[in-house]
Amino acid sequence: MPTRKILTLLISLTMFFQINTASANDYSDTMALVDQSTILFKSFGEDPNMTWFRDNIQYAKAVFIVPQMLKAGFFLGGSGGSGVLVSRNMKTNVWSYPVFYTMGSVSFGLQIGGEASQVVLLVMTDKGMDSLLTTSFKLGADASVAAGPVGNGAKAATADILAFARSQGAFAGLSIEGAVIKPRDKWNAAYYKQPVSPADILIRNLITNHHADKLRQAVAEQSRLKTTTVKY
User: Which residue of 64, 94, 125, 207 is surrounded by the most CB atoms within 10 Å?
Assistant: First the structure.
């Protein structure tokens, strides 16, 4: 891969890790991320390889969508991306408005190259959901994570969070164990025009922005599908 392209990926990755100190309160950026997440979620739901995903999202407590997860390596490697999370009220079956998060990790070793992936996480347990309400948590340490089943008749992995990753149109085993997930407080404040915590949005349902209604509708429609799949 050309050196210039590798450097571009590394610079982008560095920006993700410095997100809390960057001027990330651009309202247009938050709107774009919600729109991209809506498109990505719909494409996952329509993919013929995602039978298990479609059949079992009705049991998910939350969905985390990362339209672009950049992975770069040049001796020091890592991955990073921004995404939105919506959660389900298990009593009313109504999905929340989105919360903005970053997800990133760093690894060491002799490596070179880079790629961009699309990632969707299904939060399947109360432990996984509780982790997302903290200021920061690590996948695999604070909540277990496993690759989501792909295809017909796939056996469910037993984990708090199931990860589905797609690179260049094909589903791949992107390793996100050890990745740190943190709220993007500045983006949440920008999108909702006031300081707000993840719990205010996901649990208390105190905040709205109707720009995200298409995303909420897409997730609600997919999660209402009735199937004969054995519950997760």
Answer: 64
